[in-house]
Amino acid sequence: MMVEDSDNTGAQGASGLDLSAYDEEQVRLMGEMCIVIDRDDKAIDAASKKTCHLMTNISKGLLHRAFSVFLFNSKNELLLQQRAVEKITFPEHYTNTCCSHPLATPLELEETEQLGVKRAAQRKLEHELGIKPEQVPLDSFEYLTRIHYVAPSDGMWGEHEIDYILFVKADVDLDVNENEVMSTRYVSMDEMKEIIATAEEKGTKLTPWFRLIDENFLYKWWAQIDDLDKMKDHETIHRLL
Asked: Is 52 labeled as catalytic in the residue annotation?
């Protein structure tokens, strides 16, 4: 599969797409090159973040690799973030600690021990939350499984990803990038359940991948946070479509 992508066109069928209404830094990040994959998570190409997130391309089946980090402190509380208003997809939505994409670079394409995805997670934890790599070394990330989902953000943008789920337990220092993150909060399991239960009533917006993970997996994993080996399923790609 070859994906049309250039600074001028940016996406199949979207030549000259005008992004002037969006935040300048977020538009710059739309030029990062994501890893295009097939349904079995085999890397087959590369395309810009913009190309991968346009619904016109998603509707044609364009699929990319992603990750979701769930970071817990020593009290077993989960760090949540609220995405900044500047974000192009799912602004102001609450979500897990960090969600992004490995890039189509040699270091982040490496699949042995999921090193590429873990390097990307380490990079984005620092970019979004100011967490230094030495506080979350690569061997501290626990890779649990993958989910495959699709979700529109609005009429133009959306997500279609195979998402690597990473747990990490660490007490970290935060220096939040306000262009990425509006707020952060540590929650207990009971507090997380309350947020989910009252989200509709309170108008709390949750990212679709976070809701899917919450509904299908989160609490059984959380309950085993100190003994995750038996929770790992590296063979299955869970199709939550």
From this structure: no
